[in-house]
Structure to design on (263 residues):
């Protein structure tokens, strides 16, 4: 019999450690060449999360839960450090202490994801996971903003001559801003808003939009990889945002199942 705590922990770490590793690379690529200390720090975080990812992949689901509890604490510590690094970089950019090509919103975005990962590890180790009605709203408020950000980044990193794709990215940005506002409205109406019909409709509506955005990202990734579109988006970044949309869609699918079974 597999342990739910073990499976859930390994699933989260396998997904998010790769994301953190790639964040380190993207930040490094956006620094100016003279910012050698920041480049070295980014390289160090890349190595740390590459090792964490390898360890997480090496564990099997029948591992002793205590080992995973201890592993979660180690990973939590690493995530806390990369969160602090990202916030430091954000401060340097906003105060014009460094240049480069990292958008302030992108650095804030990746720091929010680190904070989300850190909180999830805390929840798993303490056993204080959100009840379903709270999880539905909290996850959507977080991920809808992430998806809206992605659309904005794609919009700004496409070549301006790619007018059709730029317009599509702008439309997705607007749509997900609206979905985020709706989620925040539902959030502020808690607990009265947490009725099964409202949550069902909320999840169904968002699933449709996230699936459309995921498919757009997949198309964009394929075009970029085949050199059929003009942009400064690396193929890895295109794949990165596609995987995050797919991950959000999996969460929404799980919510739909849980809500339909009245759990």
């Amino acid at each position: 019999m597999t342990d739910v705590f073990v499976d859930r922990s390994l699933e989260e770490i396998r997904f998010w450690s790769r994301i953190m590793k790639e964040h380190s690379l993207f930040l490094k690529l956006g620094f100016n060449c003279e910012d050698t200390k920041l480049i070295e720090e980014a390289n160090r975080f890349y190595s740390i999360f590459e090792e964490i990812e390898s360890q997480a992949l090496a564990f099997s689901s029948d591992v002793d839960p205590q080992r995973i509890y201890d592993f979660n604490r180690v990973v939590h510590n690493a995530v806390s450090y990369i969160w602090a690094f990202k916030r430091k970089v954000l401060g340097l950019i906003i105060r014009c202490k460094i240049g480069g090509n990292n958008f302030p919103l992108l650095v804030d975005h990746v720091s929010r994801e680190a904070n989300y990962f850190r909180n999830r590890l805390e929840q798993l180790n303490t056993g204080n996971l959100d009840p379903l009605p709270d999880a539905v709203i909290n996850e959507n408020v977080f991920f809808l903003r992430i998806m809206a950000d992605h659309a904005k980044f794609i919009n700004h990193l496409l070549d301006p001559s790619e007018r059709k794709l730029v317009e599509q990215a702008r439309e997705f940005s607007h749509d997900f801003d609206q979905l985020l506002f709706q989620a925040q409205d539902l959030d502020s109406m808690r607990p009265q808003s947490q009725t099964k019909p409202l949550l069902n409709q909320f999840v169904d509506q968002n699933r449709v939009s996230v699936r459309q955005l995921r498919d757009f990202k997949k198309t964009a990734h394929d075009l970029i990889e085949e050199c059929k579109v003009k942009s400064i988006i690396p193929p890895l970044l295109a794949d990165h945002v596609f995987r995050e949309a797919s991950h959000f869609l999996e969460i929404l699918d799980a919510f739909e199942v849980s809500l339909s079974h009245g759990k």
